[in-house]
Amino acid sequence: MATAADYAEKIPNNVGLHEDRRLQRALESWQPNFLSWWESMGPALPTEDVYLRTAVNVGREGWAHFGHVAMKDYRWGIFLAERDRERRIAFGEHKGEPAWQQVPGEYRADLQRLIVIQGDTEPASVEQQRNLGATAPSLYDLRNLFQVNVEEGRHLWAMVYLLHAYFGREGREEAEQLLHRNSGSPDAPRILGAFNEETPDWLSFFMFTYFTDRDGKYQLGTLKESGFDPLSRTCEFMLKEEAHHMFVGTTGIDRVVQRTAQVMAERNTDDVAAHGAIPLAIVQKYLNFHYSVSLDLFGSETSTNAANYYTAGIKGRWMEERRKDDHKLTDDSIMVDALTDGEIGQTEVPALTGLNTDLRREYISDCQSGVARWNRILAGAGLPQRLALPHTAFNRRVGAFAGIEASPAGELLTSGEWNQRKDAWLPTEVDKTFVRSLMQPVHERGKIAAWIAPPRQGINGKPFGYEYVHLS
Ligand SMILES: [Fe+2]
Ligand SMILES: [Fe+2]
Fold this sequence. Notes:
Layout: H1 21-41, E1 47-55, E2 64-69, H2 108-128, H3 139-166, H4 168-180, H5 202-223, H6 229-267, H7 280-296, H8 304-312, E3 333-340, E4 343-350, H9 355-380, E5 405-406, E6 412-413, H10 415-421, H11 429-438, E7 469-471
The structure holds fe (ii) ion (2 copies).
């Protein structure tokens, strides 16, 4: 049975918060700080209310409720997936032992670090997207933006709960820091590079939710395997919400490509800019940028930290239990990207140190499915053009290829060649200015901007023309 969420409390939860007064008080004292962060760093567009999904339970019979709510009154809560009392650790040197209900002393620092890094990305994306509401292409899209924002806020709550509940005073201090650091701040930036980039327009937003939020999905997938059961259960529930974020990115890019393809076919030209659509070449450049910075988020191709986390049982692989091997990997090896004699190539390393590469590859094949989908839209419109993922060596700032430059096709370039040609591959100021010029708000019911196709369906069975957002 699912534990029913306790809605009588200030903080909706299914973790029995009322049984632990100290923890409850700690979280209640963090809550006003969260709310003032939301007011100052969350969505800037003033709204009355928004048609939002709120997590209310974790059971199979429906975990969410839809309704119009004022965003500042959103019920950010703490939900863990149901506990499996038989759960055992699936990998590493503790494989087969019962999952931990408390933090093992020897792994305390590592677990705390992993939770802080994950926690830092959640509010960061809200900050990055703060000003997007002002240029939403429709009320439907505006609602989806806010849905992603409130849920990233809830994911921050999820990580702060773990810090408060299991990591004592240090955990509470880290929870404060999660509100203190801000995306792009010169003094106290967010931990990971991609989360300090602004999200200035909706094409960037869709690319971000497709590529960068998808990194989050994969990170959560590895933490869901953790031997530390509360972390595992937290991430399992967060992944439910992430599915909608992925949907927003995937269908957002679908709709951009669909509109572009439509104008290309109708006007028989690639130059759709004059007709208010986004040229495919610009879509490709945005894709190149967001994909390459997201690859960096997986870290170096080889990592002793990743090996140690795995062996310790605190961070597993994507779909760990479906893998057909010994789940210890001490005798296995993997080919990873590398510079070999100055050339772009691969090298063999122990499977344990290559785990970042293993995860990145899972991610890449998932990204490939998006590209295939967008290419089907182009093919369906009778167009020969195709989108593609750039080579892993392209535009990298982390890992084996950080020190070199490569084309999207994977040919090694001198820095001179790179500087000459990079404007053909990455968004230029002119491209960005053009995209921004299209970002005129459409806040009327049932209307949509000219650069994007309407969605096939609305949200939760409502029509596209539904009043998803009441502006104030
Ligand atoms: Fe999230
Ligand atoms: Fe997300």
